[in-house]
Amino acid sequence: MGHHLEIQALLIALLGFMFIGKSQGNVHYYDFVVEEKNFTKLCSTKSILTVNGSFPGPTIRVQKGDTAFVTVHNKGSYGVTIHWHGVKEPRDPWSDGPENITQCPIPPGTSFRQKLAFTSEEGTLWWHAHSSWSRATVHGAILIFPVNQTSYPFPQPHAQETFIIGEWYKGDVQQIITSALASGGEPNSSDAYTINGEPGHFYNCSRETTYHSWVDYGKTYLFRIINSAMNEEHFFGIAHHRLTVVGIDASYTKPFKTSFIVIGPGQTMDVLVTADQPPRQYYIAASPFYDGNAPYDNSTATAILQYKAYTYNQSNSDDKSSSSSRAIPFPMLPALNDSGTAVNFSKRLRSLASKDHPVDVPKNVSRRIFMTVSINVLPCANSNCSGPNGTRLSSSFNNISFRIPKIDILQAYYWNISGVFTGDFPDEPPLYFNFTGDVVNTTMIPSTGTRVIMLDYKEVVEIVWQGTSLVGPENHPLHLHGFSFYVVGIGLGNFNNVSDPLSYNLIDPPLVNTFGLPKNGWVAMRFVADNPGVWYMHCHLDRHTSWGMDTVVIVRDGGTPQTSMLPPPKYLPPCS
Ligand SMILES: *[C@@H]1O[C@H](CO)[C@@H](O)[C@H](O)[C@H]1NC(C)=O
Ligand SMILES: *[C@@H]1O[C@H](CO)[C@@H](O)[C@H](O)[C@H]1NC(C)=O
Ligand SMILES: *[C@@H]1O[C@H](CO)[C@@H](O)[C@H](O)[C@H]1NC(C)=O
Ligand SMILES: *[C@@H]1O[C@H](CO)[C@@H](O)[C@H](O)[C@H]1NC(C)=O
Ligand SMILES: *[C@@H]1O[C@H](CO)[C@@H](O)[C@H](O)[C@H]1NC(C)=O
Ligand SMILES: *[C@@H]1O[C@H](CO)[C@@H](O)[C@H](O)[C@H]1NC(C)=O
Ligand SMILES: *[C@@H]1O[C@H](CO)[C@@H](O)[C@H](O)[C@H]1NC(C)=O
Ligand SMILES: *[C@@H]1O[C@H](CO)[C@@H](O)[C@H](O)[C@H]1NC(C)=O
Ligand SMILES: *[C@@H]1O[C@H](CO)[C@@H](O)[C@H](O)[C@H]1NC(C)=O
Ligand SMILES: *[C@@H]1O[C@H](CO)[C@@H](O)[C@H](O)[C@H]1NC(C)=O
Ligand SMILES: *[C@@H]1O[C@H](CO)[C@@H](O)[C@H](O)[C@H]1NC(C)=O
Ligand SMILES: *[C@@H]1O[C@H](CO)[C@@H](O)[C@H](O)[C@H]1NC(C)=O
Ligand SMILES: [Cu+2]
């Protein structure tokens, strides 16, 4: 009898252990030391903010369903925050990171512990600072492996490698945005793009440090590409090699072959590459995609795909002679302003929608939000600002240019502190006009404020983002924290709420956290508001966010402990 009970208890404990083991995954601990470090690039040395002195910063490696605790130690000279881009953080906005949205900055000399709760994400994500422009140098990869290390929905790759596209400024990034906001004009463009921290052959003083990726002939590799650039989207390709896209934003896609990808800041893309070309060196290149009319950095970052079997000598070394490097094949990439190609690429993305990786596309929408996305100008006293015609550059959603408060919205919401935000972001723009017409009303002045979208728990939301031709139409990579969303429709021109929904893809739309809104076009996306909390929504081009192309989504609690926000951690960085 007693024996039986013991065995029963043991079995229950064992089952319980297996269950917990399965649902909770492993726990990882990381320490991130935010510190200044000198780097020499483009023939000059400057001090940048880093995590642990590396650029890009350290990689977080977990399996699906794991938990990671990251203690961020700020040894820099100003306050910062860190965000885990694409990690949904169920019911826990306290760890999400955007400055004065979910937390105040971590003061120099102090630490803040954040919890990363991985749930459905599998593939590639990334982390980055979320304070002013510090993310330019404070960022790194998050790799989420399948629970069964071999159970990719594609043949097991021989090896994997991460490519982080970055943007390098010779000047101080904080000073660049501060002075641009003071003058009202465009911030200075970057001086180079980088691949894994290195600009590559087409810049001065960067040949010696160009990033090399070594491959074996005949093998297939999983390349994880992350765009961490500040202000430009990119075309990315490898000479003579086809890429097979298999994932985006830590969600698997139906595989498709392409000679290049289009990837905006905030996006990640997983591709398979087979080393099936004559063994030698090939350029890997990241060129900007920019279809607006502001000045921009039109340079190209490169790395080298190098076959191991290729033994090279003085005459064909990529580092020794510029005449030979010209012979390294270069990928065919679209023209830098090729909007049509960028839109066509984004239309090819489809969720895998398989038995093991099913989709759950919301069908019965209960809340529709139609949101214009615009660059604007604000009048300036004596017309002496540096924007067009002496104005001050601005930007908006539904003609509201967002203002970030001094106390974070999460604390204000949780503790009912009034005067920080209002819950009245409108579901429609104040005016319907020919949003994408040639004749634009540039006198359309946005209002300013901290107006947020309030959603009930489990509301089924559709947001249609409508680009406008005001001031400077261009593609905008729009990002929502706390969720992945299905992109059910993409189009050019003005959204038609009768005919356009008829062509929605409700079968296998891509599931993403960031998506490029085409220049003078629209994107329809859907998600279920099942994550109570305070979640930032913004353009991932940092100059646009700085001008006000952002807002916040607050999802109310659902009425039970399991459907409510978790309580705050014991320590939160103070708001000064
Ligand atoms: C960062 O540096 C600290 C202190 O040297 C170290 O303890 C920590 O493990 C490092 N973190 C990572 C992610 O490498
Ligand atoms: C960077 O180099 C400058 C000049 O050599 C030096 O004064 C400064 O202390 C260095 N900064 C760091 C973080 O090492
Ligand atoms: C992992 O998945 C592969 C392919 O689905 C399967 O063959 C293998 O048995 C699995 N291994 C474990 C330990 O579950
Ligand atoms: C911006 O660029 C201009 C022109 O190159 C330069 O004079 C200025 O110092 C730069 N501003 C900052 C903040 O780096
Ligand atoms: C490289 O340096 C040379 C000589 O100083 C200069 O003329 C050229 O413009 C520089 N090129 C780039 C890409 O910065
Ligand atoms: C980049 O822009 C400069 C002018 O700012 C122009 O001279 C140059 O041709 C452009 N390069 C490319 C590759 O478009
Ligand atoms: C791209 O720019 C070139 C000139 O730089 C222009 O001729 C062309 O029309 C532009 N293409 C698009 C699609 O805007
Ligand atoms: C985009 O796709 C459409 C429809 O297939 C095609 O007509 C158009 O030429 C494509 N545009 C570009 C730039 O490839
Ligand atoms: C600047 O002025 C010109 C000429 O009046 C006008 O065509 C243009 O639309 C104005 N731009 C803006 C952004 O107001
Ligand atoms: C909007 O403007 C575009 C471009 O000028 C034009 O082709 C279209 O007919 C206009 N739409 C409406 C509804 O006026
Ligand atoms: C431009 O927009 C303003 C509102 O921002 C409106 O008062 C004005 O009538 C509009 N002008 C035209 C020509 O549509
Ligand atoms: C955030 O709030 C702090 C005070 O708590 C303030 O010093 C800082 O400038 C604010 N940041 C932004 C981006 O407004
Ligand atoms: Cu934008």
Explain briefly what this protein structure is.
The protein is mainly β.
Number of strands: 32
| Helical proportion, percent range | 10-25%
Based on Cα principal axes, name the global outline: globular
Structural class: mainly beta
Overall mean pLDDT: 93
Task: Give the CATH level 1 class of the largest domain.
Answer: Mainly Beta
Total count of helical runs of at least 4 residues: 6
Q: What is the CATH architecture assignment of the largest domain?
A: Sandwich
Count of spatially separate domains: 2
Widest sheet, order of strands:
10-9-12-17-14-15
Rounded to an integer in angstroms, the radius of gyration calculated over CA atoms is 24 Å
Q: Strand share of the residues?
A: 35-45%
Q: Name every ligand kind in the structure.
A: 2-acetamido-2-deoxy-beta-D-glucopyranose, copper (II) ion
CATH superfamily of the largest domain: Cupredoxins -  blue copper proteins
| Low-confidence regions | 1-22, 319-323
Can you tell me the CATH topology of the largest domain?
Answer: Immunoglobulin-like
- Biggest β-sheet description: 6 strands, mixed
Span between N and C termini?
Answer: 65 Å
